[in-house]
Amino acid sequence: MGSIQHEGARAGHTADSKRKVIVAGAQLGPIDIDTPRSEAIQRMLRLMEDAHKQNAKLIVYPEIAPVTFFPRHILEGDELEKYFELEVDGDPTKSANIKPLFDKAREYKMDMYLGYAEATGDEHYNTSVYYSGQVDKVISKYRKVHLPGTFEPYERKDATNQLEKRYFKPGNLGFEAFRAPQLVPEALTKDSGAKPNEVDTLGQGDPVVGMIICNDRRWPEAWRVYALQGAELILCGYNTTAWAPELLGTNEKISTKEKAKAEALFHNKLCLTYNSYANACFSINVAKCGSEDGKYPLIGGSCIIDCDGEVVAEASTEDDELIVAEIDLGQCRRGKEKVFAFEKHRRIEHYARIAQQTGVQEPDFFTRPTSAVATGTARSPFSTPITSPPRQRPHQILLINPNSTRSMTEACLTSVRPVLPPGIELTGYTAPYPAPTAIESTTDAIMSTEAVLRDLAKHAASNGETVQNFDGMIVACFSKHPLIDALRESYDVPVIGIMEASLYVARMIGGRFGIVATAARSKIMQDDAVAAYGLSHFYVGSESTHLGVLELETRPREEVAKRMGHAARSLAVKGADTILLGCAGMTDLTRAAKDAVRDEDGRRTVNVIDSVEAGVMMMASLVDMGIPTSKKGVYKGEKEGRRTRGQNWL
User: Fold this and answer.
1) Which of 88, 579, 613, 626, CA to CA, is 20 to 30 A from 61?
2) What pTM did the predictor assign?
């Protein structure tokens, strides 16, 4: 089924390198729509057994490996859900269908890249995980970012559809590199006292790995983000059609199915070899291929590519086939230190457009020398667009959760990560004991304010650090929290609360707003806060979910979503055209509220504002403007007055 293909000596090879490892790509032949998942799993296990016999330490499987490529079909309900894997307590190793793969990898002490369709609550992702057989742990998860195709099927009856946009959400985990523990011998670790990113430790730790899925391989941005984290090995599983005119387009060059397949194979190898070379990293790229259901052709071309862009192992069939090679990650140093020494040669001041623009914006047309009057044409009232210059350093924003529930802080960070503006670094902070676990009363708010102020002052005194190093601070509590004004008194940087941020956004995009509140008490407090902000005239009121803050996490998701939806609909009936989520703990429930206020024809004419997202976006604008907190009036610093009174108790 496969054999080891050893690399010959080439420039860049380090003779005494200890970063050699045998790796395998487990290509799968076609899996038909009626093929039992268990049958596909057994085929995958046979490939793993063969890899083990050849001493492979890492095996890579294709995208959505255990099932047919179902996004080509129109599916719904149980017919759709049966293709997804349900993780147990967030752990894919316990998922019933794919558990045998993790069990066997554990037995062999083999690392594994596995692609599958992931179901989590009411959200679905095209996912891969990296499992370390050395330490028996899922080290990293990646969700496909670049989803191809369309949401609606093509009009032609016999067209091959690509409906990933219909069945999956775009990935929300970014391109985060990770280390594969113990994959190579004698790697530097934290225990040795060595520090990463020193001149003499680069490329000496556990291998730095990145994951992509299928269409991601065509986008150089993904590879470069990984390379900027020192990636030495990129893993990619794919299901790529050999013939889909509606998806790929047609011309004379690909006028037949044979020509289209040849081009697809050429483009596959082109993007894999170039990006491996341009980022000085190895890559293992594995297909599910052949003709599924006898009429949906997928290309093969599974290959292992070295850091110079050379193919060192390649599949020769469109069936189950194992490709194996011994690779030397030490060879990456030549490219990373010479041609692609990023720290020496990258010019980020000229790259702003790539992170700020999605669609194409062509330059303006030339103006002919004849006058506008003579030709009868008028000059456009629109100027040529301008772009902002790149920042010298990222703006650093501190998101403060004034309660002591760390999971709520993490939920806030996770929710805003997909929409975080370029050049912004967002750091979470969770209030320490004795701050309450939830802010549901005036007493809670006061206790949390004291806990945060004392802790920040103590942290500065003991570590020589201060929140003044941040460019702005957000208080992630949907209330007129006393911590907001206290921080404005204590620090120069701008400070905003998520309630006031979302209130101001609501006034800019709608005529009347309402708030989805937690418990009945919160409803009263929010009514008072709206009045204090002077916005009662635009306020239709709030609707309570009758849940405590912590119950947003502990109650069943279906129940919480149902209550959120009911409250949102009630506000819309009252006349709200904008609905605010009245708790930071609701940040991952935005979709439930949006779905509840759709019009009968499916349109969304009522806006739903995630207060955490509003706070981050508004703070990003403030720090861009470079405006500090004014110290002339009510926010004049309080420290001098306390010292004068001999009460420097912070």
Assistant:
1) 88
2) 0.60
Q: Amino acid identity of 90?
A: G
Q: How far apart are CA 317 and CA 299, in angstroms?
A: 10
Alpha carbons 400 and 397: distance in angstroms, whole number: 10
Q: Which residues, 6 or more positions from 398, have their beta carbon under 8 angstroms from its beta carbon?
A: 427, 429, 467, 470, 472, 473, 474
Per the annotation, the verdict on 253 as an active-site residue is no
- Determine which one of 57, 144, 288, 336 is catalytic: 144
CA distance 289 to 301: 9
C-alpha atoms less than 13 angstroms from C-alpha of 78 in its C-beta half-sphere: 0
| Ordered domains of the chain (ranges, CATH) | 4-12+20-191+199-345 (3.60.110.10), 395-625 (3.40.50.12500)
Is the Cα dihedral 514, 518, 521, 522 positive or negative? negative
Q: Tokens representing 299?
A: 């290309």
Q: What confidence tens digit (pLDDT) does each residue in 508-527 have?
A: 999 999 999 888 888 888 89
Structure tokens at 262: 């040849």
Task: Give CA–CA dist 591/598, Å, rounded.
Answer: 11
- Nearest Cα neighbor of 432 from 402, 412, 408 is 402
> What does DSSP assign to residue 8?
P
303 in active site: no
CA 634/CA 645 separation, integer angstroms: 19
The residue from 85, 118, 141, 214 that is catalytic is 214
Parallel, antiparallel, or unpaired: how do β-strands 311-314 and 303-305 relate?
antiparallel
With residue 405 as reference, give the H or E element that holds it: none
- Which of 57, 63, 288, 303 is catalytic? The answer is 63
Q: Which residue has the tokens 């004379």?
A: 252
Q: How confident is the prediction for the chain on average, in pLDDT? A: 88
Tokens coding 268 = 């596959």
Cα 459 to chain centroid, rounded: 31
Query: Is 289 an annotated catalytic residue?
Result: no
